[in-house]
Design goal:
The structure is a single chain. This protein has 2 helices and 8 strands, in the order βαββββαβββ. The chain is α/β, with parallel strands linked by helices. The protein has a 4-stranded mixed β-sheet with strand order 1-4-3-2, covered by helices on one side. A 4-stranded mixed β-sheet has the order 5-8-7-6, with helices on one face. The longest helix is centred in the N-terminal third of the chain and has 11 residues. The model has no long low-confidence stretch (mean pLDDT about 95).
Length: about 140
């Protein structure tokens, strides 16, 4: 994989762990997305960069909401991204999300192959959120 005539053979990969993991999603209406992630998902704003809002999911996992007019990408109609949250009580979450009238709410399903019980729904601009618990 390494070519002996490249600069990478002279430079070592940096040491240390990744400090933070952030998945960035791009929005046309950032305030609407913020309200959804705060009020429905109950995430706390960890880093406010103005046109980029970073919310802590768990541990060092974060989701970043970006104003598409300022970010490196643009919002698009196709959303080939899913944010998945593993929780202790998927049924309680299902009731909560259902009460909030979110778009695209699926029925609860189980996958013995994956060992999960889960459901999915869409955020205000169509990104799919899956909430799951471990079976058993």
């Amino acid at each position: 994989m390494s070519n002996p005539n490249t600069e990478t053979d002279k430079i070592a990969r940096p040491e240390g762990e990744t400090e933070l993991a952030i998945t960035f999603l791009y929005y046309r209406d950032l305030p609407q997305a913020m309200a959804f992630y705060e009020e429905v998902l109950g995430l706390d704003l960890a880093i406010d960069q103005g046109w980029s809002k970073i919310y802590r999911i768990a541990g060092q996992a974060h989701v970043g909401l970006v104003d598409e007019t300022r970010g490196m990408q643009r919002a698009s109609e196709q959303k080939p991204v899913q944010v998945c949250l593993r929780v202790a009580d998927v049924d309680a979450w299902y009731a909560w999300v259902q009460a909030n009238g979110v778009a695209g709410l699926t029925k609860m399903f189980e996958s013995t192959e994956l060992g999960i019980r889960a459901f999915a729904f869409n955020d205000p601009e169509g990104y799919q959120i899956e909430i799951q618990s471990v079976l058993g």
